[in-house]
Amino acid sequence: MSTPQIPDEFLAKVARRATARMARTDRPFLAERVLGITAHRVRDRRLKADLLGAAADAQLSRGLVPRHLVQAYGAELACADAHLKAGRKKEAAAALTRALLLAFHRIPHVDRLHSPLSDDPAGFTARLRASTTARAVAAPRGRKTPPAVPPTDRPLRLLVVNRANANFLGLLTQRYADHPGIELRTLDLAADPVLAPLAKGLRRMIELPLGTQAAYAAEVEAALRPHLDWADTVFVEWCSTAAAFMTLVDPGNTRIVVRLHKYESFTYWPHIMDFSRVDDVVFIAEHMRELTTAAVPRLLATDAPRLHFLHNALDLRRFDRPKSDDARFTVGLIGIGQIAKDPRWALEVLRLLRARDERYRLMMVGGGIDPASSAAATAYHEALEKDLAELEPTGAVRRLGPTDDVPGVLTGVGVILSSSVREGCHVGLMEGAAAGAVPVVRDWPFVAGRPHGTRTLFPEDWIVTTPQQAAERILAVTASEEIRAEAGRKASLYALSTWDWETVRSDYDRLLLGADR
User: CA 259 to CA 311: how far, in whole Å?
Assistant: First the structure.
């Protein structure tokens, strides 16, 4: 005897009650269990996606990661694929957009101390890779002509593109503005009056490769073509909006280079980009290449772009200054504006240090976490402020806020700490090491235990896994000023010889100019 089918209307009613219950309790596990039993048995594709999506939104709005996040975004993908199969391309694009916004919501990946994508990059993105709509959007459209050989009778024309974030471009543009072998132009898509309104809008960037945005495609072509026709090479900073926008059109015989830092790997942009129109992808760390290619395995295909690892462009020599007399017992933490920096971990280290010697103090540099950015950020901010209310009145912690004189601040720091759960390269730590502060680096949990991570980016003796190990290392390297100064000198030599622009710039010359130019 066959099992009678429960009507969708009844299942939906129970699922909605479970969602409402999740919004009223701090322990939503039973309600999520009920939701899983009911919503997943709904047969109507659109209703199932709506129920799972509403429940996911309810959890995300409270700063929680839904246990059924993958199923929820997968249900939207199922709707997208059904629409595409029926020829409803706009509806397919709308459903794919909803799926991407849900899958890559900031709560699971930015405002947390771990991420389902970093825990299992291939597993988390498997449904996205299986979606016919997502594959159609990212399908290689290619280029009519291959990139041209660099010119030998004139300077190489280099166009450097960003969209409202040129933070790491200063040294690059300065070098190539003065280079006799390069004619340089820069383009900020957010500041250009023609391109700014075109270079935004996830949904229409999805619709264009599906063939439903002919007018938009023509506008993008007309706006980008003069820039592409002028340039021999385009260097796109950040593998996000600007990179996806630039690859909406055939670049012709212009070479396209895209640099990926860190945050892009936790966004949807690499999943919808046409990498057949990119010639080179530059990663600033090996572990970011490893994580990104696990989540986007088409980057490892035989026809994929060339993949490179080049250190960030950093002017570290300006940090090499004498220390002040009181630096020995000052631990520095540069950058505290994100949950991923996990300053509460640093405070736990400080408590352990002060239990042994109350001369230790923590100097926190940078703007704080914005509690308005999400419910998760609010919760972390409140917990951090409670910790600081305990420690600041004793003089154990000093918050400097943002500063334009980080080199000056670091003259008073004897130990530089990385308490982060994830980083690309952690510029603040590298600056501190260059300044002669002794590095103490948490084994970043997002990449701990993988072939590449903190232990391949930094010397092994810098790495710790627990607050207890961090405190013990700090106590050992600050046992005397002579010990601290020698350890700091070695750290500075390592930083300057490995990451300073004087060392790194030849790698960028080879990438952009070729070995013989």
Answer: 11
User: pLDDT for 181-216, tens place per residue?
Assistant: 999 999 999 999 999 999 999 999 999 999 999 999
For the chain, the residue count is 517
Tell me how far apart the alpha carbons of residues 375 and 63 are, in angstroms, rounded to a whole number. 4
Identify the CA nearest to 145 among candidates 223, 254, 56, 236.
254
- Cα–Cα distance for residue pair 454/451, rounded to 1 Å: 10
Torsion sign, CA atoms 370, 371, 377, 381:
positive
Q: What is the phi-psi region of residue 142: left when phi exceeds 0, alpha when psi lies from -120 to 50, beta otherwise?
A: left
Contact present, 216 and 202 (Cβ < 8 Å): no
Residues 95 and 321: their CA atoms lie apart, in Å, by: 55
Supply the pLDDT for residue 272.
Answer: 96
Average pLDDT of the chain, as a whole number? 94
Residue 194 and residue 218 in contact, taking contact as beta carbons nearer than 8 Å:
no
169/477 Cα distance (integer angstroms): 35
Q: For residue 43, what pLDDT is reported?
A: 83
Query: What pLDDT shows up at residue 44?
Result: 84
Query: What is the arithmetic mean of pLDDT over 102-107?
Result: 97
Return the structure tokens found at 470: 């961090």
